Amino acid sequence: MAKGAINPRSAGRKVERPANAFKTLLRILKYMLPYKIQLIFVVAAVFGAAISRVAVTYLLKPAVNIYIVPMIGRQDPDLSGFSRLVLIMTLIAGIGVLCTYLFNRLMLNVVTGTMRQVRVDMFTHMQRLPIKFFDTHTHGSVMSLYTNDVDTLREMISMSLPHMLLSLTTVVSIFIMMIVLSPLLTVLVIVVLMLMLITIRCVASKSSKYFSKQQQALSVVNGYIEEMAEGTKVVKVFCREEKVKQKFRECNETLFHQASNANTFANILMPIIGNLSYLLFAATSMLGGYLAVIGRVDLGTIAAFLQYTRNFSMPVSQISMQLNAILSALAGAERIFKFLDEPVESDYGYVGLVNAEISKDGTIAEVPYRTGKWAWKHPHHDKTLSYTPLKGDVVFEHVVFGYEPEKIVLNDISLEAKAGQKIAFVGSTGAGKTTITNLINRFYDLRHGKIRYDGININKIKKDDLRRSLSMVLQDTHLFTGTVMENIRYGKLDATDEEVYHAAKLANADSFISSLPQGYDTVLTADGVNLSQGQRQLIAIARAAIANPPVLILDEATSSIDTRTEALIEQGMNTLMKGRTVFVIAHRLSTVRNADKIVVLEHGKIIETGTHDELIKLKKRYYQLYTGLFELS
Description:
Mean pLDDT: 84
Number of helices: 20
Helix content: 55-70%
CATH architecture of the largest domain: 3-Layer(aba) Sandwich
CATH class of the largest domain: Alpha Beta
Shape: elongated
Structural class: alpha/beta
Strand order of the largest sheet: 10-13-14-7-15-16
Distance between the termini: 59 Å
Oligomer: single chain
CATH superfamily of the largest domain: P-loop containing nucleotide triphosphate hydrolases
């Protein structure tokens, strides 16, 4: 399809309209302001391209009246004047071609720069969004902003807006010239044009209904394919291949019929527009010929008017199509700007984490280089500073929290974890174990109560500094595209190779890493799909080990590791946890027997606290969990 041509299928699609098109367009223009000089040249080039088309056509009138008609039948016609006119027409047409190339080339610069800044702003903003945003929005919906919505916005800026302006300028210019040449013939054009627009609207409304059904059927087919691809093993285990094939045939058959109906109406639109254009041309020729016979118009006027008629229909249709494309793009842009307007993670902390040197008498001095020791730098209202050594004492004081205002997840939680202690949380699913660790990281802020870290309210600690003092191994391991060494070094970006090797050995990951094709230089892709779940978890533990924080959070860290692998890393984990405050969440109660304190949670409340032996003697909930009388679920 030629550039700027009408897509018949787009005419029938249901157009998504923006809630506030003008406001959205203004925000887009703000992104384009750095290119205002180029945009001025773009507008000038668009007008130049449109006017050159009109001017070339208008010159047909003197070409016919002054040169062609008078020379008919002459033996030795003088073509010098005609040649000059043709040369002028060629030059004007060349200017039009140059203007078209210029505005397309300049818009390429504008759109690439604008889209670059939009993507940078989106990604930068995404890093500042709170965890709650990602809890309430699927990854697919966020990715759709970067792909579908950004792409439609790019097409609007690069194609729809300039071609819409070109079509509008062309239509207005041609219409003015038509009136100048022959008001009577112009009335005929208007009548046929109204008939054309009514026809487009009727056919498009029919097609729109079926295109909507086609999109629904397409989503069903795509969803079914994705579901079956993910569940291939289950399908084969239960020998359901024929059943799923039959179900797919039914879904695909529905899509076939809806697509056939939609495209039937869409594909007849262009022939209808084309035939109406031919009808307009024929009617104009007949009426123009009659007016020429009775002496109302000359042949040059008819020739120019007929050419204007041929050039008039396409821009009018393009305006309708481009308007739909612009409205759809503006709706996508609204979603992008709504994303950019999402409130960022607030941080009112003022206590920072600094490198420190601690003398024998306990005096703390802040230093600019890494010492392996840290301290909390606490500015006070009287402009003085105090330093508190980072130890890892964590105290919960009557903490109340809920992800939603009407639903309390933690109710009156009070507990103390002294530096170097191992605290284990056990309880059924939904009891609030993971929520407690999320609060320590300040992924969420408390509703009531306080959490003190080394005696400092964590709300006063800068979030980045707070999180630098913690390390966390999640149940769902995420590995980035890169080498094994880069993934381990993610816990400490300036770590040496030797530190990476040491951390891997600490987690007992060195043996399997060394057996990989390129060892530590093996590239991991697709979230480490070429590794087993247990191996991925070992790399995550090594990543936490290299960070060397005073507080360690293990959220089901060994849930995906078999019993043998778990035994292999137990010694390394004990070494890793030595001297650190450790919070452990585990369904395998065997992994928490040696905890200094076991906290049993139920429905967001602490119902038991003690060591393993103490809780066994109580013979309450922990005893039931440990002996299997009550299973975790």
